[in-house]
């Protein structure tokens, strides 16, 4: 295996090979698939985004009737609400893991701590990431949200209530996760092509050693592509809370998957207290090596297109081979 700098920085090695979601495994494992649908797919990430969407729909979203016309007031409210949610989630994880260093480097993928560097806006990874997350990420997400509410308020998107339509709306909610992940592979692959990488995606890739604020630290062009999955929901019958689930999945889930730690403990790591899975080693490998793992394991399009790095030395050799035959050493 080539000893590049990123290899040497590696610290925590999770179990490999990284498996795909069980419904894509062969031979089929029906029990594994059932367990996945009933539990693993939604815990903790999916359940958090669904709960956040319901809570915000009930308590922190203006009436649809008041969003009939685009007005600064309600759009500013949405922006402030989204900024607050992002800041609480990313800020608390950052404080615990990187300021307090509450669990040291336990399950930290990269043993180094983020450093100041001229490649970052303001010369500092955290300030850079906070800036691009709030100024661009929250703003673009809020823009997609505002258009979605305007579409519902004006009857352009057919409204379906949960009473009478709950099976359809539950299936639609589950579908949004698959749609978003397939969309992610496509837009991410595109962002690695030519000038799009230089202009836009390089902002996200300033972070080979990501932290919570790196998750949606992206250029506005990337935000426009990456956060566009809800556009599909503008044109099919649905419920605002399904749209909000998809918006929150795009806006919030990268904060969790970019923590840089595989598992986060809510207290003393030695007491075997409450903990939850956070970082996504599959995507961490993308930050480390760039030319693999454009998607994720839920919709494993990397398997289909030959870019799946499962963390094993064999997968690493195959990736280097692929790079060599593409003219890069
Ligand atoms: Zn990333
Ligand atoms: Zn990338």
Task: Report on the architecture of this protein.
There is one protein chain. By secondary structure, the protein is mostly helical. The protein has one domain. Helices cover 54% and strands 2% of the residues. The chain has 13 helices and 2 strands, in the order H-H-H-H-H-H-H-H-H-H-E-E-H-H-H. The protein has helices at residues 5-9, 30-38, 45-59, 72-99, 125-153, 162-191, 194-199, 220-226, 230-233, 240-257, 281-289, 301-305, 313-325, and strands at 263-265, 275-277. The chain has a two-stranded antiparallel sheet. Helix 4 (72-99) packs antiparallel against helix 5 and helix 5 runs antiparallel to helix 10 (240-257). The radius of gyration is 20 Å and the shape is globular. The relative contact order is 0.15. The model is unreliable at 1-8 (pLDDT under 50). Bound molecules: zinc ion (2 copies). One zinc ion binds next to loops. Residues 204, 258, 283, 287 line the site of one zinc ion.
The assigned structural class equals mainly alpha
Based on CA atoms alone, the radius of gyration comes out at 20 Å
- Mean pLDDT value: 91
Main beta sheet: 2 strands, antiparallel
- How many strands appear in the DSSP assignment? 2
Assembly type of the chains comes to single chain
- Total number of helices: 13
